[in-house]
Amino acid sequence: MDEISVEEIGIRLAAKADAEMNVAEKAFFAVYAFTADVLHGGLGESIAGDGGELFAVFAEFTRRYGDMELRALVTEIANCFPGPIPEDRAARSSAVSQLRKNGDPLGELDERFRQGEAAIEAGLVALVSNNAAAFGR
After folding, report:
1. Is-above-0.90 flag for pTM?
2. CB burial class (10 A; 0-12, 13-18, 19+) of residue 15?
3. CA 75 to chain centre
4. Which of 136, 112, 109 lies closest to 4 in space, CA to CA?
5. Number of H helices, E strands in the chain
6. pLDDT digits (tens, 9 = 90+) for 40-86
7. Cα–Cα distance between 1 and 91 in angstroms, integer?
8. 14, 20, 48, 51, 102 from 8: Cα distances, Å
9. At 16, phi and psi to the nearest 5?
10. How many Cα neighbours within 13 Å face the side chain of 99?
């Protein structure tokens, strides 16, 4: 089997309509997009914006494919909120704003997220390997 390029798969899926993706591809792309969003703007900006819709998929991905550090980080991110992370964008944005009134707990986790990038990539490779047919491999 060829070496799996996470970036190549992410770029290919970005050009695909959501309706054309299978379940494994949707999961891959959600994690890929969430990761890129956080690396670009930080956890607070991502969760308050479009990336917040992808957090539940990212959390499930880390449960299945993440190492212990990554799973612990996801738990800490979720624990920053008084309850579940809101599904509605406006409510998420408001919740993140409330968090920032008492410091920036999500911002404090940004560096740990960046340090987990290799573990995220390894998990995405495992997702592709475990679902080879879904990725045309």
Report:
1. yes
2. exposed
3. 13
4. 136
5. 8, 0
6. 999 999 999 999 999 999 999 999 999 999 999 999 999 999 999 99
7. 45
8. 10, 17, 27, 21, 40
9. -95, 145
10. 24
Six-digit token pair at 38?
């956080």
Which H helix or E strand runs over 14?
helix 6-14
100: nearest Cα among 29, 47, 137, 53: 47
Residues 6 or more apart whose Cβ sits within 8 Å of residue 122: 65, 67
The b-or-e profile of 96-115 (16+ CB within 10 A means b, else e) is beebeeeebbbeebbeebee
Retrieve residue 111's tokens.
Answer: 């560096």
